## 1
Amino acid sequence: MLKVKKLIIICLLPILLSGCARAEGALAPTGVALDTGAEVPILQDEKQYLPNVLPEALEPVINYVDGLNLALTGEFSYLRSTATSSCDCLAIADRLAKLFKTASLMGGGYKLKSIELAKEGANQKSFQVVIHRSDMRKIDRASKESILWSASNIKNTFIVKKVGMEWLLSDIK
């Protein structure tokens, strides 16, 4: 009896979900002509969020920021996979690993604010990067002392190089 109920639920679930999608789609306007003759003005001061380069060359920088957020939880392998082993950008992983032996971090996170192409080569590119770190609190486990690390914008030049078939961070200045 229980197996039959499970089978019925499994069979009905796609129907219910597709019904929700149809209902949501029913809210979309129909029969509205798209005005393709209107020109959208382009502002001279407007710039792209990401530079016009190979997406593969940008991946190490974007993944590095994601890796910083994971490193705040004590997971360093993703951060380390974004760079060559000699990159100074990995020093933060060592500092955090040492810190986590005696303290914890509460709150906080990293967000990529801007990335601009500084230098472009076939196998090496430099990017001016601004990363925002929000407020976070360091709590010493032994003394229970709490220290607020204020938010900051971190500005660096990230150098990425093509190593074999992939792009990796190779230096930070």
Note: The first strand starts at residue 103 and ends at 106.
## 2
Amino acid sequence: MTTNKTLQGSTTTVAGTRFRAHGRVDMWMEDDVLHYEATGPFNEEVFDLLAVAQLGFLKTLTLNGPWASICTLRHSAMSTPGGIQRYTEIMQSPKPPSFVPVATAFVVGPEIEGGKLMVPHFERVYTLINRPFQIFDSMAPALQWVHAMVQASRPCA
């Protein structure tokens, strides 16, 4: 498979707050899929950095038509309660329509610390914002699902 990775963003490129961020999120666009690689554990501050990095990254893209996102978790899925609350607030905040994916998948392998514990929290966030959401344990089925969701939301010719 050939990949068309364009532009990259990261929480590491955003000036931090008074408290140190725990976790890291890198992002890149590959065709019509915005990939996130999130290395945890996570706290509230990393989600604040993510909001800034993500907005800045999306502003650099030319988004023509529907797209989807996949977040691959690395090392740990654990987050503080404040982190989950902040992520929920960020996801519920209004965004320009072109900045909203048609679907989101998370890849949470069985080796990810706290994966099974945190999955219900992620599912709750995406239920609250009414976005199609699925959890997968590997990339191939996640890609297949998001590509199907993108295709299904394209206007009929």
Note: The first strand starts at residue 5 and ends at 10.
## 3
Amino acid sequence: MFTTILSMQKEKKYIIQGSIVFIIFMGLYTLLDFLNIGYDGMLEEYGIFLVIGNILLNVVMAFISAFMWNVSTALVKLTGREGKGSFMSGAAVIFGMLTYGCTPCVIAFFSTIGITFAVAVLPLAGLPYKFLALVLLVLGFFWLRYEANHVKCKVKKENPN
């Protein structure tokens, strides 16, 4: 089933949808970087390699998120139900908002729910947290792929005759 979903990704609808979703997620991840310290601050404090690493991670995470969106959409079209792994891209964005956001905002948020000074200082401008978000996305992708290959309701293949 996953190979069928992959072949559907060549359709114009999925290319356009994937491009739009990629741009949206790229904008979100870039915004989170600016809310944290910004690329100028990263460059000044940590150097060019951290900036390049953050931008590359943003691209990879936005691509995975957009691809998962497309896979989930194709899975719904073929089976009539959404895969459970598709929520991981949204979870990664929420995770990013809680960890990459400005430190005073995060501390204030956590303190309102009883976790005081949980994130006092984000090392390397939140890079370890971005890696955790990437791991969440990769796990979500493999979960979605597993669900696509093990669909509970079989889809009838059309007879070419």
Note: The two ends are 21 Å apart (CA to CA).
## 4
Amino acid sequence: MKRNAISLILTFFLSLLLIGCGEEKQFFLSTTDYDLDAETSQTIRGVKIGDDSDAFLAAYKDYPILTSIGDGDYLTIPAEDIPFDTALTTILPSFFVDGTALHLDSFCEENNIEKEGLLAFLTNEDYLSAHSVVYRYLVFSWEDGVITDIRSEAMDYNRDGSYYQPSSESADNLEEG
């Protein structure tokens, strides 16, 4: 599971670097939005396996959504353009610093960080010794316009940081180590 998380995190960071620090939506999911009902795998917003894109978009269209069509790379696609009738995966990602959702635009500005330096800043040992940094994401698998699986995953950089090395190494190289 950690290897999948590493791959997802690397993909997310690459997507963030492509969209930059200034073009993010203003709305955030809370930490409780990432909780799933243990019995039904239903999200706190009422989305469950078997739901269609209307239910998903009613709950999440205002939040950043990363989409992988087939087994392709994760891309930022406008919610109304996501081809839900194909096999795809959507991810709702958020960073939480000290328990608060991170607004990347403000964070970059407040810390005078260029988009290329964001990942290194968040994973720096000095920063992690003073702050908790957790990456949380909901993963929705789709087939023929219907949700077939929902997972809630997280990576606590203060605890799991040894599994991630902020460099240009590929996910394949990280999995070997």
Note: Residues 2-19 form the longest helix (18 residues).
